[in-house]
Amino acid sequence: MAMRPSPRVERLRQGYLKTKDSVVIDILRIRTRIMKETEGEPMVIRQAKAFAASLREMPINIYPDEPFVGWLYTKPRGAHLSGGQALALSRELDTLDTREMTPYSISDEDRKELKEDIIPYWKAHLLQAPPYPPEIENSFLSGKHSGRRRAFYGGMLVHWTAGYEKVLEKGVLGVTRDAEERLARLDLTDPDEFKKMPFLEAVIIALGAAAEIGDRFSEKARGLAEREQDINRREELLKIADICTRVPAQPARTFYEAIQSVWFVHIMNALDNENGTGMGPGRADQYLYPYYIKDLQAGRITEETAQELIDCWFMRHSQYYTIWPTAPGGSYGTLTPQTPGHHIDVGGLKPDGTDGTNALSHMFIEAMMHTPGMTEPTLGLLVHSKTPDDLLIKACRLTAMGGGYPMFINQDHRVECLLARNEIMDGPPITLEVARTGTGAGCHELVVPNMESGFSFTPLNLAMVMELVLTNGRRRFDGEKVGIETGDPRQFGTFEQVKKAFARQLKRLVKNGIIASHVYETALLPKPFNSAMVEDCIEKGMAKEEGGARYNVHSLQTWGRIDAANSLAAIKHLVFDAKTLTMDQLCSALDADFQDCENISRSCLDSPKFGNDDDDADRHVAWVTRLVNTEAKKYKSTYGGCTVVTEVPSASYVSMGGFVGALPSGRPAGAPLCEAVTPPEGTAVNGPTAVLKSLAKVNNADVNQGQTLNLRFGPAIFDTDEGVKRLADFIRSFVDQKVDHVQINVVSSSTLKAAQKNPEEYKELTVKVAGYNARFVDLHKELQDSIIARTEYSL
Length: 795
Prior knowledge:
Helices cover 46% and strands 9% of the residues. It is an alpha/beta fold and 795 residues long.
């Protein structure tokens, strides 16, 4: 039986919704000072000292009514700036709090300090990566930047989850002892061992400060308790103080201690990484459950008290947004209130293959039901063949509420994906037991928790690849030659020539993208605390940015796979099978963006499309997918990461489409690309089951790190319990079809259009944008329109 949210949860929720986003520079101020003071020291030591100073000096805020303490960046809706972000925002500091999209409040004093002190320092101290090699001079991935040195600061690996369980079991002091023992074992006569000394010393510096964060909150709570007039709140503050005295320095003993310790680790992971992007607590229902059930059985906690605590913890994840600069020319393409992807999964398999569902799995879903309008954590349900009906039905009831939660992730399939990495991954093999622990990070990218590096990524716009085939290597929107010459497409006499040209363009762009990624990776900064949370880094004496993790991964992030495949299907059907068009006619129509070519445009739109269980269309998606995976497997990152494919484009499917001209699929120039494997609006006409059947024809394990499928259902489906049951059956089918992921918005087009016109009346309307959620009224109109245009299915 579902419980109602407590009055406290509702009060806090309303308060968070009313809070405005603001810029926080406290941590950047501290980091800037430490970097000035430590010039000439090893970078890993400088990083550790900056992290330690941030923990010891950052503001400690505890607000009324909170049973749970700590903020990612010191306060609710506070957005931290790194040095690189400050530089990127320098030209709009004066308008940041008044700009039309995603404004952030900033004080005049902070603005002045950024301009006069902080930004000048980082402008003068950018890490200089080497220039791009001449061979990628004309790559569309790098434009005309060859020969220039690429400036970076704070290069990072994103999307990983680590340290939560380790700190619960050992405490930060226990991890510190591991590092001290490894440092003592170094054979300093061995040059390789000698090189490990700075990293291990940095880890000890970072962990020393990490062990103290609880004491700072404890002191603050005791001070507040001394002045508190309400006896119940005073007792609560003293309880908070006792808990923070214990964790995260020592192992957790109770559920309350455990959940507070997990959140402290989350804060510190974000501080060391200088960005909260893509880090998540992973499968928290699994590692927190022993603490919960022990307390429940001992009478130390009630279900209601635990639920309130979980609700408050969950809302913490929604209180940070990344600050994006406005693109040149005032474009809103990147301006979306995008939370960084604090991913939590529930359910799934245990390492022994049995079902892992427990009481917390249900309570985490309940927490999302209690906190409408919150955009994080990005909750996923790990579905498998043994998922119990009651958990699946509960998840479907959450979906029916709207808001886009949870995403459904096929764990049976993902176990196969992780085992498949053994073919290309160096180091110890991923065992079946380890593969069953896999979880999502960021939006829902697949990671091995506690053991993986995070990743840099190579971008690949497959819709652009298709365009280059049809222009002999030139980009339509500016005429720039960014591909190779693969022949005049008007002279192609067979469809195999088209495919051969596509493969050649793709291979070159993947290769050049890998080289560009290597350039970026030279500016990766070692993260001592993050690395201490990842298995094998301490033993190897290496940061995860240097290959210290047990499993190292690099990502080939693709866009436009369905656009490219639908275009191939159209060319084959119209030019070489039905012969209703010539290549010359098609290319001329594309060059003109279908102007005065309405018949050709209609023919392209009516050609076979992915998502209808049509073999003629679906085989091209399978072919492109295999081609991309085959190329990816050839390459590794500079830190030893094998390259795996992902298509989780966030909101960038809109902006990436702006660089691509008209396509044979019928898509006009500049329109958004397909949102990963989501069929283009209006093209999947045989219902959502046909979409699953189309995607099932792809070897989805080739997209090893995950791919987004976004569907939208009308709310009327769920007017009765039968609709919820039909959705559960649909999800069972999704698992059987070996599809990786599906996420569902339950909202009508009429509601979305009404929210555009009257945003004040729909402040809590939350939608699944891509792999992340956002409040619909906060999105720019172009992105809103792309969501409204998505096909509204029935079941």
